[in-house]
Amino acid sequence: MSIRIEKAESLKQKPESKKIPFGQVFTDHMFVMDYEEGQGWYDPRIVPYAPITLDPAAMIFHYGQTVFEGLKAYRTKDGGTLLFRPDKNMQRLNKSNRRMSIPEIDEEEVLGYIKQLVEIEKDWVPEFEGTSLYIRPFIISTEPNLAVAPSKTYKLMVILSPVGPYFAGGMKPVRIKVEDEFTRAVKGGTGAAKTAGNYSAAYRAQANAKQEGHADVLWLDGVEKRYIEEVGSMNIFFKIDGKVVTPALSGSILEGVTRMSVLELLKDWDIPVEERKISVAELYQYYEEGKLEEAFGAGTAAVISPVGRLDWLGNTMTINDEEVGPLAKRLYDEITGIQLGEREDTKGWSVNV
Amino acid sequence: MSIRIEKAESLKQKPESKKIPFGQVFTDHMFVMDYEEGQGWYDPRIVPYAPITLDPAAMIFHYGQTVFEGLKAYRTKDGGTLLFRPDKNMQRLNKSNRRMSIPEIDEEEVLGYIKQLVEIEKDWVPEFEGTSLYIRPFIISTEPNLAVAPSKTYKLMVILSPVGPYFAGGMKPVRIKVEDEFTRAVKGGTGAAKTAGNYSAAYRAQANAKQEGHADVLWLDGVEKRYIEEVGSMNIFFKIDGKVVTPALSGSILEGVTRMSVLELLKDWDIPVEERKISVAELYQYYEEGKLEEAFGAGTAAVISPVGRLDWLGNTMTINDEEVGPLAKRLYDEITGIQLGEREDTKGWSVNV
Question: Fewer CB under 10 Å: which end of chain A, C or N?
Fold first, then answer.
């Protein structure tokens, strides 16, 4: 579809410092496209960033039929702009759409629109080390109707937000609490979809964890409350006795793009890796045997976030003396190196804008 | 707080027929109140029904932090307007608020605002038998911020929608499918809160059921997939060998106002009732023994909705020859009688507007 572009009449001041709070500053333009039953997706357009107007009965406000994605654009040393595996985000958006009964998008087409938006906003991609331009595509149900049923109209939007470095003072291991009361997701539910309700469902548990000095919670499976699933915004990896173990996708775990990239790199590096069910009790046993060498999360926000301590029902696992482990560091350097165009991209992960 | 009232300059045409599709027609005014961290809830106002304007980064679009309620205003024969146990909806709204990390409301105060709104819109309460004015209070998170954390600002709104009779051609038993693939909610999750994400999570299962000729699905517990929880928009009751059995509140079942009213009436009528775990296998055994006398849902929309058939993994339970059972009929007549002010309200359930 041909895209309509309406440029902003005046441009905003861009942040001068690299201390940009996550998700609070937005660029001058946004992408919008509408959907109507019978007509399909229509009127793709890049327009000035502006509030949107919806009927109070719009279904998004009542029944939460919505999906989103998160990816980043990186500034290379020679002034170019790179996206990291954006096709994976488009695939996952459609996977989420199917779970939430939202009409699918044309993945290539929408990726093309995102590239055009980022191209127009390329001066917003920050230059400081560790910074990037966060890209948030999302689809909301807009039909004004209180019937509990899929919407007949939708709006796909893409907004952009420059973000500062995740680790402002250098990479630092975090403390995580194994959540034993609340549940994030369960088999047959929406845990594998990137949909709004999964995130606010976690707030109570996260607030409790923060009060106790933890950065986030590690979720267990909803059925037996034994098997490790994921951290709020990251998939989790453990290095145990030379092998890397990560929970197998269970239907209630989000399939992270960074997760799949870590798995591919480990394979390349001939580091043995197991995707399987792992209970927190099993993990604790390895810890007691001195075999738990590293733990780290993998996600778009932090790329790799080492876990220095895990607290589980009064048991404390201190991992690698709460220092950054060599594998976490190697993965971080490799992935960010590819993202910034500083390391050879043999897999075609980086996409030029 | 003193309420600000801005009347609409022109009024809409009210529906003349009783065939009003649910949730698509809205009255002339709505109630709005805002919340800001540090200030609390402020500026309660009744204003003309109109679209609302939000930043595309408003948290409701991304992380689903939102709650809602549903109740009805009924027209009495002498032209009065009654609400049915609205204090219970206010209590549940705050219960949902606590689960979703949304600031609580002053229940009495907000109920007072709702009464004022209904009073202004009293000509919208339809007169035909079985009709009512549906009241939808809801709270949405409005802070423009992509950080995954509770919002610092919210908007509470109340919109009103005249609705036609649930059973247009008289009460008719429905066919329900026992859902064995998808899961609505699980212990530790948000199932007991009235929050948006729970509803769209059900669309896939409901669409499958409808294709097979079922009106809705009966959800099983998320852990063992054995115990009966609720129907999409109703709690469920079974009459087994003279006794009434309904699933005990498990933490993942919504505590319906109609459910609690049914329980209180059954007690008054000296009909034995058990709130307990009941598996679908146990139910099927009673069915085979000829002891499953009635099944019915209880909820604000239908009040009482008899279930004529339950399909479970290839097993069919035909209940009371797919006719309306005497207990379902008695409960329906009693509750709607009280709602319409036609039967004596010994419990103080009805509230005059």
Answer: N
Does the CB of B188 have a partner CB in chain A at under 8 Å?
yes
Nearest CA in chain B to A143: B24
Q: Report residue B11 as tokens.
A: 């009024």
Type of residue found at B158: V
For chain A, the average pLDDT equals: 96
Instruction: Give pLDDT, residue A233.
Output: 84
A332 contacts A304 by C-beta, under 8 angstroms:
yes
Instruction: For residue A191, give Cα distances in angstroms to A67, A250, A253, B7, B9.
Output: 12, 9, 6, 44, 47
Nearest to A152 by CA among A294, A37, A42: A37
Search chain B and give the residue with CA nearest A65.
Answer: B200
The distance of B334 to chain A (nearest Cα, Å) reads 26
B150 to A207: CB separation less than 8 angstroms, yes or no: yes
As to burial, measured by CB atoms within 10 angstroms (0-12 exposed, 13-18 middle, 19+ buried), residue B242 is exposed
For A132-175, write each residue's pLDDT tens digit. Answer: 999 999 999 999 999 999 999 999 999 999 998 887 778 999 99
Mutation site, B93, B158, B200, interface A, largest A CB count within 10 A:
B200
Pairing label, strands B303-312, B292-299? antiparallel
Take residue A53 and report the two structure tokens written for it. 């107007």
Beta-carbon contacts below 8 Å between A and B: 217
User: Are residues A100 and A63 in contact, defined by beta-carbon separation less than 8 angstroms?
Assistant: no
Choose the mutation target among B102, B146, B154 for the interface with A, i.e. most A CBs under 10 Å.
B146
Confidence of residue B168 (pLDDT cuts 50, 70, 90): confident
- Give the minimum alpha-carbon distance from B325 to chain A in angstroms, rounded to a whole number: 27
In contact, A83 and A121? CB cutoff 8 Å: no
CATH number of A174-339: 3.20.10.10
Give the SS3 label for residue A60: helix
Are A4-163 and A174-339 equal in CATH topology? no
Among A164, A292, A211, A316, CA closest to B101: A211
Partner-chain residue, chosen from B100, B138, B199, that has the shortest CB–CB distance to A148 = B199
The minimum CA-CA distance between B257 and chain A, rounded to whole Å, is: 19
- DSSP code per residue over A279-298: BHHHHHHHHHTT-EEEEEEE
pLDDT tens digits for range B252-299: 999 999 999 999 999 999 999 999 999 999 999 999 999 999 999 999
* ipTM attached to this prediction: 0.97
Chain B nearest C-alpha distance from A158 (Å) = 9
Pairwise CB contact (< 8 Å): B202 & A148: yes
In chain A, domain spans:
4-163, 174-339
In CATH, the number for domain B4-163 is: 3.30.470.10
User: Cβ–Cβ contacts within 10 Å for residue B294, how many?
Assistant: 22
Question: What is the pLDDT, as a whole number, of residue A68?
Answer: 98
CB atoms within 10 A of CB A318: 14
**Average confidence (pLDDT) over B227-239:** 95
Does residue A337 sit at the B interface (CB-CB below 8 Å)? no
Residue A126 forms contact with B (CB below 8 Å): no
Q: What is the mean pLDDT of residues A209-224?
A: 95
Q: What distance in Å separates the CA atoms of residue A344 and residue A348, rounded to the nearest whole number?
A: 9
Pick B61's closest partner by Cβ from A22, A66, A184.
A66
Q: Tokens in use for A58? A: 């719009």
Cβ distance of A182 and B189 shorter than 8 Å: yes
Over 90: is that where the pLDDT of B21 sits?
A: no
Nearest residue in chain A measured CA to CA from B190: A201
